[in-house]
Amino acid sequence: xxxxxxxxxxxxxxxxxxxxxxxxxxxxxxxxxxxxxxxxxxxxxxxxxxxxxxxxxxxxxxxxxxxxxx
Length: 70
Hints:
By secondary structure, the protein is of the alpha+beta class. It has 1 helix and 3 strands; from the N terminus they run βββα. It has one domain. A 3-stranded antiparallel beta sheet has the order 1-2-3, with no helix packed on it. A hairpin with a 5-residue loop joins strand 2 and strand 3. The termini are far apart. The model has no long low-confidence stretch (mean pLDDT 78).
């Protein structure tokens, strides 16, 4: 039961400090071939590709010649 931003709990005690948030449990799987995993893998691949291109541009040569010139 709510009244002007105040809540009353099951023991009829007034909570005048805050409205308690609704709590839910996210039951979507986070392992295996899920949409979340595919998005994460795609984003990490994009970061890796851009980093590789930046290394090639700043270094002046490609990835295969890079370790041999150290």
